[in-house]
Each structure stands twice: as structure tokens, then as C-alpha cells.
Amino acid sequence: MKKSNGKSNMICKCRTAVRVLMALACPLFLTGCHGHEGLPAFEMPQEFDASRSYEITFWAKNDTNKTQTKIYEKAISDFEKVYPNITVNLRLYTDYGKIYNDVITNIATETTPNVCITYPDHIATYLTGANQVVPLDELIADREYGLGGSSVRFDSPSPEGLIPDFLDECVIDGHYYALPYMRSTEACYVNRTYVEKLGYTLPDTLTWDFVWEVSEAAMAQDEEGNYLVNGQKVLIPFIYKSTDNMMIQMLRQKDAGYSTDEGDILLFNDTTGELLETVAEHTRTGAFSTFKISGYPANFLNAGQCIFAVDSTAGATWMGTDAPLSDISEDKIVRFDTEVMTVPQFDPDHPCMISQGPSVCIFNKEDPQEVMASWLFAQYLLTNDVQTAYSETEGYVPVTYDALESQEYQDYLAAAGEDNDLHYDVKIKAAGLMLDNVENTFVTPVFVGSASLRDAAGQLIEQTVKSVRRGQDVSEDAYMDELYDQVSSLYRLDRIGAMQSRVSAQEADLGKLPATAAALLISLAAAWAIIITYAVCRAVKEKRKRR
Amino acid sequence: MRKLMAILTSVSVILVCAGCGAGSAEADKKSEGVMTYDEYMAADMDSEVVIETYVQAKQSWWDNQATVYTQDKEGAYFLYNMACSEEDYEKLTPGTKIKVTGYKSEWSGEIEITDGTFEIEDGKYIAEPEDVTSILASDELIDHQNQFVSFKGMTVEAAGQDADGNDVAFLYNWDGSGQDGDDLYFNVSLDGNTYTFTVESYLCDNTTDVYNAVKALNVGDKIDMEGFLYWYEGVNPHVTSVTAAK
Asked: What pLDDT, on a 0 to 100 scale, did the predictor assign at position B192?
């Protein structure tokens, strides 16, 4: 019996998420999030008024994973027992793009959620709306209601209890605008059986050269067109899920430009061109493809049609012969040994990989007490029970030391491989890979438009792969020049600088007026002064003439 | 005089209708440089294709890209993210004839046209659903990929269990991780085989009859269905109609 799995629709929507995001984000750049005056800046009340009732909304993202949904529901239920005057309404999403899309729409109508799972890149865009996102600096540090505060009714972690690298990722323009919720990175899930069948031994750290070499070696076919390594007519040895991460990590490993902290775009450089030429070379032979063009790496890997599948550690439960989740029918699954390795490196002595995973932000409201209720719930997501339970659903890592060091979590890690469900070894190895490499992770600069720049980085690879598959000549400089122009235009990257200025101006509400904004205001004042002087002089002249 | 006017009017109407009919007949003849369905299916993957087809249903539009189910009298074409202005999207009503230029692609088993552009042509055709119930379990089914089809007399099976362990007839998302408004998944069986069908929420959202009909299903119900024969790692019909079996 052939039974299709429900992931299909999620996939279709993932395929479209970038487009949705683009459609909404780009007009946003032009108009700003706020179609109205904006909210007054949040002022933290002296104390939380527990005598009142509050109803808040929480927009959460899950990986189309029922267990994660249940954990959210349990967290809400447990929180409501501690704070019976706060009701939390859960709205579930399965991709970040859709949340981003809906938040932007709801900023315009002043119906944002109270608490929202998000990425810092997205928050940077939300910040184009005046005072929409609550800066958390004061809330985090508050002795009573802050992290680990004395008046918080549950065991909240102290600021020092959060892994500093993860907390630092939530800083935008010098302020905390989110709390980390979970962290992951990318992993390369390798069919070790096929690598060895091809006569290779996996190195301690994967390199790009090794992956390309093995991938090319795997392309040998018999007279009937079957690939020798798998005996099938289908094989894509190397498939990358998130090509934006692929490009970003390659550039970082090469110490090449991507963007500055201030939002200057450096993506379109010679190293990028060289990387794209390599991608083209291996696309031409059929050794490489992407999720958007061919399908999920996990499906190909599990069917013995892929050797190196790069995906998030948060996708580990789909990877491998015994994966608890699968989109392909059982008769298509091939038995092989799965190795979980860091993404390929240019310098294996200095591995370098992206840090990703959901964070939580709080949206501002007219009523500061409602914001306080939101803040308390956001903190609750950092408690041990929530952190350990959620991290165990996928190859996620908790963001607090308490959860990481808890006996429950340590027991969970130690039980890797005891079953193919909660203790699925590939999933726990993926989490272990993240834990072993926290100091080797990085994040890209966050600024208005950084989400678009990320998409553009991926689009360069996607478009190159498409062009090669369609028989176009990508070897000429003219092709790269045109590609750069197209991608830059598609993602409106030329607007990013202007929008960065807009946000800087709004940042003034939170502190010292930026020099550029001050200069602008002085210029305006001077202009008005000249206009008024001119008008007065002209009026005096007219009066004299009449006389 | 009135009689004469009535006769002239009737004759005119008949002539106009005949003209329309002739137009429809001509519409099946492909224009110069346009592939037949067989030629399209024989074309290499990633090659440029030019087809004429008729809109059957629209799934989504954003950022000047439309995803559309289309079909001619020979077969169906799924148009993924075709370039389309919002204004033109409104013109893509069921039956509208369009000429599409794009690239033949495959994504997880789904044959589709990507990076397409289109122009509206004269002609109209709405496909009647083809009953594929008898070939559901056969390899022949894939020949009907993306077509508007029907399934008759299938039995609703449990899609999963609720929090109390009771069988439920449908799930929000494939594993029940979703909420109202998300895709619906339900299982139906025939001759001992069970299949998973989907209400694709972009195609039919939670205000549609089909969405609410599926929410009202009970395990054991006998139902007839219509929908598009979408493919994802195997058959994954996107249903547009569910009624009690006749």
C-alpha cells in the first residue's frame, strides 16, 4: 500500500514561505510597519497587578510535530495554574515565514500577538513599526519580575542562567528584543555505508573537497543507467535543504564578505562567484541539488538516493533508516548506517557553522500590565520542564544551563539509541553535535532587510542550479553579473540602507537621538526658518509696495 | 412584427451558440509551436515547454506568482508559482484557456511547470471528474496525475486518536499538530487498502463546504469525493468535494 504522508502540504508551503515573506516584507520596507501613529514606548509598571484578568495570545511555531504542540499546550496549562488570572491563547504555525507574514499584517491593524516565536532577522523588520516590539533590557534585569525575579511565581532562570552566546543573539541595536527559546544548527546526515562502499573513509570533520569528491565518484552508472552505488536509477549524492545557510556558511568559512553589522551588503563578491561556479560544476554532473528543486533531503537519504543530506539538527527525526518520522513508504526505505557530522568545512581545524532556532519576542500593547503578563509567560518558556521536553522532540538544545545540566536531560542524552523514538540515536547525536560546537557557531548581523539578504544568498545558489539544469551557460562573467542584478532587484536589497536609517530614527525613542536623525531635524528646522524668514520679508515688501 | 423579431432573435442566438461551439472544438487543436499533452509528458525534465490548457482551480497567489490546477482534454498540468499579476489572477476563472511557457520540473514525484508565464486565449473548458476509484491501487493511477478526478464509495477510517484515546476521523496537519484552518488529513479505505487524502487549506480554506464536510466525518462513513490528483512521494489527492456515498 502506498500511503502518502501529510508532510507534503507543509513542504509545499515551505516552498512558498520565502515568497510570502518577500511579498509582505518588501512593501513594508517602503512604508514601514506602522500605518498609524504607533504605540507609546513601553514603560515598566512598578508591580504586576495580579488582581486583574488578562487574555494574551501566543503565536508558536512547531515542526509539524504533535509532541511539540502538546508541550506548548502543557506549558500554557501549567502557567495558567500558577497565574490563574492570565489566559493564554495558542495559535500554531509550522513555518517562520507564515508567522512573519501574519505579524506584519497584524502590525498594520494593531492586532499583533502578545508573545511570538520568531527570528531576530524578523524582529528587525518589526522594529520599523514604532514601539511595536518591547525592548527587554529593563524587564530582564528587574529584581522582582525579571529573570529569576523575587516576585515571579515559578522557578525562572537568572540572566546568568541563560547560555550567553544564545542570549547575545537576541541583541539588536544594543537592546535585547527577544529571549532565546531553542537552539539548533545544521548537520550533514551521511550514508556511511555508501561512502565506504565507494572506497572512502569518513574524516573526523567533513570538508567540501571530500563531499564533492565522493559525490562525483558516486555518479558511476552501469549500462542500463543504474547507479553502481545504490543500484537505482535515481541518485543525487549531495542535497542541501537551506541554501541560504549553505552560502552564508561557505562565505563565513572563507572569511569572505556577506554584510557589515551596519547593514552594508557585501554578498556580491568574487568569492561568491567562485562558490557558485563550484556549485554549477557539480550540478552539471547531477551530483548536487537542493530541497527547493528536487525535494526533501531526508526522503532521498532514506531511499538510498542521497549520500550527504544537509538539514537542520531540528530535522533529525526524519533522517536515517530507522527514523521515527518518514514521508516515504516503507518499501522504499533502504538500510544503511547514518553518521551525523558537522556541515562541510573549508578549514577543518577551525569549524564554523550557523546558530539558528526559535526565539521569543513580546509585542507592545496600550496596557503595560498586559505586557507584564506576556513577559511572565515568555519567561515561563525558559523553565526546566518546557526546555527539556521541547528540546527532546528534535535535535534542539536547551538555552538554559539549568535545563542542560539537569539530571533528566543528561539521562536523555546518555540513553541515545535505546529506542527509535524518544531516544533515536540520530536525533540525540544531532543535539550532541550542537552542544559540542556552541563556540564554533555564529549568527549573521541583524538589521532591517537582513531577512531579505539571507533569502538572496540562497537564491543565488537556487538560480545557478536551475540555470545549469536548464542547459544555460553559467560560466561567463555576464551570467554572474546578470544574476547578481536580478537577485539584488528581486529582494530589493538597494532599499536596505534607507530602511536601516528609518529604524535608527525610531530607535531614538529608546535613548539618545542618533546623529543622522539629529542632523535631519536640524536641517528641517533650518529649512523652516528660511521659509518663514522669506515669507516675512516678502510680506514686508508687499506691504511697502502697497504703500 | 413581434413574431419576426422573435424569430430573428432565436436565429441569432442559435448562430451565436453554434459559433461558441465551433470555438470550443477549435480550442482543442493546439496552436503553432504548442505541445500536445503527450509531447509534454515526453519532454525532458528541466526543458522548456509550451502548452495550452484550461484553468480548473486556483490554489494561491502572492508576490505576482500563482499556483494553479489546469487541464485540457488529454491531461492535466500543475502550474507552480507561475508569473501572474494580481489583476490577471482574477481573470483566471475556472475554464479560462491559457497558453503557458515554462520549465517541466519534478518535485517529490509531482510533475509540474515552474517559472512559467502565460497569456489568456479564447476558449473555455471545464473538466468533468474522471472516476479513478477502480485504479487507485494500480500503477496506472499516475497517468492521471493532477487531473480532476472522483472516488466513489470509500470508507472513512480512523486518522488517529484524540487525547482520550478515541478514534478520530480527521487530523489538523498530518499528525494532528495543527489547528482549525490548517490542512485536514483523513484516511479512506477501499478493498483493504487505506489512503490518506488531504483538504489543502490554501486551495479550500476552513470556510469551504469541503473543509467543513471533512470536519463532520465519522469513522465508518461511506463517502464520494472529488479533487485533484496531486502527488507527493505517492498519490496525495487534494479533495474539493466530499458527499455521502450514493
From this structure: 95
Q: How many CB atoms lie within 10 A of CB A186?
A: 25
pLDDT computed for residue A166 by the predictor = 95
Instruction: Return the bridge partners of B61, or none.
Output: B66
Q: What is the Cα–Cα distance from A451 to A356, expressed in whole angstroms?
A: 13
How far is residue A367's CA from residue A49's CA, in Å, rounded to a whole number? 11
Of A13, A16, A470, the CB nearest to B103: A470
Q: Using the Cα atoms of residue A211, residue A214, residue A217 and residue A219 in order, give the sign of their dihedral.
A: negative
List strands edge to edge, sheet with A115-118. A86-93, A54-61, A115-118, A359-362, A179-180
Interface membership of B180 toward A (CB under 8 Å): no
Q: Is B193 on the interface with A (CB under 8 A)?
A: yes
Per-residue pLDDT at A495: 77
Residue listed under C-alpha cell 532577522:
A121
**A19 to B173: CB separation less than 8 angstroms, yes or no:** no
The type of residue at A237 is: P
Q: What is the predicted pLDDT for the residue at B25? A: 44
Per-residue cell: B125: 473548458
| Residue B206 contacts A where some CB pair is shorter than 8 Å | no
Q: In chain B, which among 115-154 make CB contacts under 8 A with chain A?
A: 115, 137
Q: Which residue of B has its CA nearest to A325?
A: B175
By the 8 A CB rule, do B183 and B198 touch?
Answer: yes
Phi, psi of A473 (to 5 degrees): -85, 115
Q: What cell numbers appear for A41 in the block?
A: 514606548
Q: Is B157 exposed, middle or buried (0-12, 13-18, 19+ CB in 10 A)?
A: middle
Q: Which domains does chain B have, with CATH numbers?
A: 37-124 (2.40.50.140), 130-244 (2.40.50.140)
Q: Which of A12, A104, A302, A466 to mutate to test the interface with B (most CBs of B within 10 A)?
A: A12
CB-based contact A4 B232, cutoff 8 Å: yes
Q: Is the pTM of this model over 0.90?
A: no
Q: Indicate yes or no: CB of A4 within 8 angstroms of CB of B235.
A: yes
Identity of the highest mean pLDDT range in A10-19, A494-503, B31-40:
B31-40
pLDDT at B18: 40
Q: How many helices (H) and strands (E) does chain A have?
A: 21, 14
Do strands A441-442 and A338-342 pair parallel, antiparallel, or not at all (unpaired)? unpaired
Contact (CB<8Å) A329/B234: yes
C-alpha cell at B156: 472513512
> Pairing mode, if any, of strands A353-354 and A441-442?
parallel
The interface residues of chain B toward chain A in range 6-45, judged by CB-CB distance below 8 A, are none
Contacts of residue A235, Cβ cutoff 8 Å, sequence gap at least 6: A218, A219, A227, A229, A286, A305, A306
Q: What is the pLDDT of residue A531?
A: 57
> Which SS3 state, helix, strand or coil, does residue A142 take?
coil
- pLDDT-derived band at A64 (thresholds 50, 70, 90) equals confident
Instruction: Please state, in angstroms and rounded to a whole number, the distance separating the CA atoms of residues A231 and A221.
Output: 9
Whether the CB of B224 is below 8 Å from some CB of chain A: the reply is no
The verdict on A68 touching B (C-beta cutoff 8 Å) is: yes
SS3 A417: coil
Interface mutation target, options B177, B182, B202, B203, chain A, most CBs of A under 10 Å = B177
Name chain B contacts of A23, Cβ cutoff 8 Å.
Answer: 62-63
According to DSSP, the β-strands at A171-172 and A86-93 are unpaired
- How many beta-carbon contacts under 8 Å exist across A and B? 120
Interface contact A6-B65, CB threshold 8 A: no
- If we measure between CA atoms, which residue out of A470, A443, A474, A445 comes closest to residue A460? A474
Q: pLDDT digits over B47-69, tens only?
A: 999 999 999 999 999 889 999 99
